[in-house]
Design goal:
The chain has 276 residues and is of the alpha+beta class. It has twelve helices and four strands; from the N terminus they run E-H-H-E-E-H-E-H-H-H-H-H-H-H-H-H. It has two domains: 89 residues, Conserved hypothetical protein from pyrococcus furiosus pfu- 392566-001, ParB domain (Alpha-Beta Complex), CATH 3.90.1530; 149 residues, no CATH class. The protein is elongated, with a radius of gyration of 24 Å.
Length: 276
């Protein structure tokens, strides 16, 4: 069906059945990336996959050269999608495929006219991940295994344009140990609980003015700054988020704190705190 001495192309509709048939011919290809597969599956399940000119490429002998993640996603989600298909290629052509840089969310946001796009992308993705999974999942170093598509992030920004302000709001906290990603996410989460308290909490953390010994915000500020200096910036983001949430809860409850702790591992790891 796909054997050809010349290169041909056409737009077709790929059904799960056709995808399975094509994958049966996929005798040699790079290992399937779980992260990339989940990203494509999420996009297909939300009906975001559109005909964009990216082709499924097939060799003269019927072997899949490019497009296996899309085909696996169609089979696993039982989804039909339109695509450009190119067949009749030489096997050696595979060596030149996927050598370019993938367009990131930050790239897409920059094209769309947004500012501070690297930090904005990180914060928006973290917000979506926290809502689907948890704050802990959103702040882990391996958070990218919980995919957020570019379309999902852009749709969220269009529905909630105030998110664009978050990088600027939390920018000053980075000097004292917070990262923009964690600070932006938690400012957003805290604001949903109480917007005035969230503003007050982060302003006091940044300035440090008028905070007495035992104030949980001052304790947090000192601990994160010390951790930043000792680790040269490489602080576990989930651990950081847990300490910030604990300080927030004590601030909200009117309690003092001379030390903030979170037990990550061991025989009895501590349950990740929930902000209130």
């Amino acid at each position: 069906m796909f054997i050809s001495d010349t290169i041909k192309s056409e737009v077709i509709t790929v059904t799960p059945r056709l995808a399975k048939k094509l994958l049966d011919q996929n005798t040699s290809n790079r290992k399937v990336s779980g992260v990339n597969l989940e990203r494509v599956k999420a996009s297909m399940l939300r009906d975001e996959w559109v005909l964009n000119g990216e082709a499924i490429k097939i060799a003269k002998n019927g072997r899949i050269l490019d497009g296996q993640h899309r085909l696996h996603a169609a089979v696993e989600t039982d989804t039909t999608f339109p695509t450009l298909i190119v067949y009749g290629l030489d096997d050696i052509a595979q060596d030149t495929m996927d050598t370019g840089k993938r367009r990131t969310l930050a790239d897409v946001l920059q094209i769309a006219g947004y500012k501070n796009t690297t930090n904005l992308a990180s914060i928006v993705q973290s917000i979506i991940r926290s809502e689907r999974h948890s704050i802990r999942h959103a702040t882990t170093n391996s958070a990218t295994k919980y995919p957020v598509t570019n379309r999902q992030a852009i749709d969220r920004l269009e529905r909630e344009p105030s998110l664009e302000d978050l990088p600027g709001i939390v920018r000053g906290t980075t000097k004292y140990g917070m990262t923009v990603r964690v600070a932006g996410l938690l400012f957003y989460v805290f604001s949903k609980i109480d917007a005035e308290d969230a503003q007050d909490f982060f302003e006091k953390f940044e300035s440090g003015a008028g905070l007495e010994r035992g104030n949980p915000i001052l304790t947090l500020r000192n601990q994160l700054l010390t951790m930043k200096q000792e680790a040269r910036g490489a602080v576990n983001p989930s651990y950081m988020a847990a300490l910030i949430i604990k300080a927030w809860n004590k601030y909200r409850d009117g309690e003092s704190a001379h030390m903030l702790k979170f037990r990550v591992g061991g025989a009895n790891p501590e349950r990740f705190p929930e902000p209130h």
